[in-house]
Every structure is written in structure tokens, then in C-alpha cells.
Amino acid sequence: MTDDRTPSASSLTAPDGFPPSPGGHDPEVLRQRALDALLTARARTTALTDSVDEGELTAQHSPLMSPLVWDLAHIGNQEEQWLLRAVGGRQALRPEIDGLYDAFEHPRAARPSLPLLAPAEARTYASDVRGRALDILEAAPLHEGGRPLERAGFAFGMIAQHEQQHDETMLITHQLRSGPVALTAPAPPEPTDAASLPGEVLVPGGSFTMGTSAEPWALDNERPAHRREVAAFHLDTAPVTCGAYRRFMADGGYTDPRWWAPEGWDMVREHGLEAPLFWHRDGGQWLRRRFGATEPVPDDEPVLHVSWYEADAYARWAGRRLPTEAEWEKAARHDPATGRSLRYPWGDTDPTPEQANLGQRHLRPARAGAYPAGRAPSGAGQLIGDVWEWTSSDFLPYPGFVAFPYREYSEVFFGPGHKVLRGGSFAVDQVACRGTFRNWDLPVRRQIFSGFRTARDA
């Protein structure tokens, strides 16, 4: 996941190698954008931590996750290190806690045993840091000739993305906790034309521009823009639904080793898996637990909380495969009418509530076929928001990759151990989700808000 990848600012790499954002980014527009992103993230952090009592904040609800109070203070500590110290040149407020909140120094399972800040102290610390950071933002030069961390407001955008990534992690913790309902949200909009949509779309072959050199807050692994050749392929119009996944289960999907990668089959047998995480059978009905409530599994909603191995096994069973990362991005961004790669499937404008399910607005994926205004030129829909989508690709650098501003965000994770997820989920804020954004995780992960769609060769 993208939340535990920010070490201290002392690991800053040589920034001059990082491609500068192009001209045309108005510093004052970016300053306002940074302010809005920081305030939106903090409002969400507050909602996630104020919705439970002190005991729930300090408890570890799963060894896979940190106590919520660790995330809260870590958010403040990273903001202090990068915005107050690295950008603002301010004296350290709490240097003695840097080690406590270094994600690389302490694994999640060990964090409850650390002398962490208590909830009230963590809130006060994060608030104090934020006030000083906003003062720095107000005065920071964001022009193209400035220091790389300040250029186009990159450091402020990076910290807003970091906080939102931890907000998503805290929402996962809310899903894992066993207490009563603490969060509520309205249902997402219903699809209007789902019955008439084709099951798959054809994406023509040819080259397209993958990645970006223009997005001012794009992270290092999204850069640089480069041409990629992709053969023609068919792609599911929408993510695979719970109903479709149940047919795989009913056909013995979890008992037939033919469909599974060897490591995945080992996982199934070791843990006795028979369904996605949080599902359980009650008589002849499948139910799921969602943020403290139990409900029937909805057949027409994208399946959620499946590992890469489960997604891959389903695709094999269906006579299909997972799309590559390049295929996913071409289907999501390439506009054959202009030859351009768009920022988002619908164009270059920021997401609206009519185009994508983002920002914890609905606390669940929308039903398959929703958000017609968000469909790509390829005809595929729900490529942004709803569920993170597993791809078949390992997490690898693009040609010309340069680590910035530290190696530990991306570079140390490159290799066959991590699989790429694309598109974001309902738990992702728009500042940390775009057509080029790359997430990655271990193929065994199930607690994340992950689903998938399948592809086949044309």
C-alpha cells in the first residue's frame, strides 16, 4: 500500500535529476490547490479519528495495521519533516519522535508496544504542525525556477497525498475493527444503462503515451512520459462483480488447483480460503461485514477484498487473464480521436461526483455500470474510483526513472514481489488518484479495497 513509504526527510535524494513540471502552472493557482488539498485531507483525518473513542484509537485492530493513533501522529511527523524542516527551514519541533513514526524502522505489528503519543497529544501535535505548514505555504515561492521541493508546490502536494493515503489506511482499519458502526455514508448512484452495456470493449492496438512528465504532483514512479506499444485486446467494460465471482466459487474455484498460481494455491490451503475477505455463509446466503454492519452480498456490485492470486485464479477460470498495467492505462487514457493520453478517462478536468466514486463519499463501490459520465473513449467505465484493480504486471520503473525525493518511496519496492494496482477506490481522494497513478502491493493482500477486471487477446 502507499501509506508506509515515507521515511524521514534526511533521506532526500539529489533533486535536480527530477524532471521539472512544465511551464504554465500558475503559482497562485497551485497554492490554492495545495491549500484545498491539505484542508480536505485534515478534515477526513479528523472524521476518521473523532468517530471512535480513545480505546479504539490506541488499540491494534489487526496485526496488519497500525493503531489509528500511530497514523495520526505519523501524518503530523511527516508534515513536520518535509514542510517545516525541508521546505521551511524551521527548527525541529519534536525530533525525539522521528524514530517512533518512521515506517521503515518499526513494522506495523510492533507499533502498539512503542511509547506513542496519546490521542490528545497526537491531535495537538498534528494541529500545531499544520498551522506552521500553512504559514510556509503562504510564503513559499512555487515558480518553475525555485527549489525542486517547492517547484509547482510539489512538497505540499506530496504531503496532501501522503495524508490521504493514510486516511485510506485508517479506513481499512475501520473495516477490520470489530466494534459497532462508526462511519456512515449515503449509497452511491445507481447505474442508468447497465443492462445495455456490452460485457467487454475492444481496445485497438498501437502505441500510446504512458506515464506523465506534465502532472505537477505526479510521484516519481509515474514519470517520465514515454511511448508504449500495446497489441489489440478486449477488456471488461466494468469490474468483475460479486455475482460473477460467486459463480467461480460455486464451480469449485477455491478447490481446484488448476486455476491457481502455486503460491496462491498454498495460500488457499494454508488459510482455508473459500470466499473474499469479510464474506461468510449463512445457510444458503452469502453475507459480508462492511464497516461494522452485516449485509447480503450484492450481486451487481464490484467484488472487493480479493488478493491478486484470487483475481488471477478467477481470470484463468473464466478463460481470460488480468490486463497488463500498460493495457489498463491505454484503455483508461488513450483518446484515438486526438492521439492524446488524457489525465482521466473522461478528459483533463478534475473528477466530479458524477464521474467517479472517490473520497470516501459512499463507503462502498457503486454498482457495475454506474458513472456513465466517467467512461473512457474506449468505452470502459469505472476505471477511476470504486475498487483498486489488480493488473498482471510487476511493479517496475519506467524508462528514464529518477528517484525523487527519496529512494524509499518507489525504488526499493521495484521487482517481482509486488503487483501493480490501478484506478483507485471509493476510499481514495482525487489528489492521490489520476490516470497515471500507480499503486502496488503484495499479491497476498486482501484487506485493501481491491477488485479487478479481466482481459483477453483480440
> How confident is the prediction overall: mean pLDDT?
94
pLDDT below 50 for ≥5 consecutive residues: which ranges? Answer: 14-24
In CATH terms, the superfamily of the largest domain is: paralog of FGE (formylglycine-generating enzyme)
Name of the CATH first level of the largest domain: Alpha Beta
Q: How far apart are the first and last residues' alpha carbons, in Å?
A: 32 Å
What count of structural domains? Answer: 2
Radius of gyration: 21 Å
Question: Got a strand count?
Answer: 14
Q: Strand order across the biggest sheet?
A: 12-11-10-13
Sum up the overall morphology in one term.
globular
The proportion of residues forming helix, as a percent range, comes to 25-40%
Count of individual helical segments: 9
CATH architecture of the largest domain: Alpha-Beta Complex
Give the percentage of residues in beta strands: 5-15%
Classify the secondary structure makeup into a structural class. alpha+beta
From N to C, what is the helix and strand string?
HHHHHEEEEHHEEEHHEEEEEEE
CATH-defined topology of the largest domain:
paralog of FGE (formylglycine-generating enzyme)
Largest sheet: 4 strands, mixed
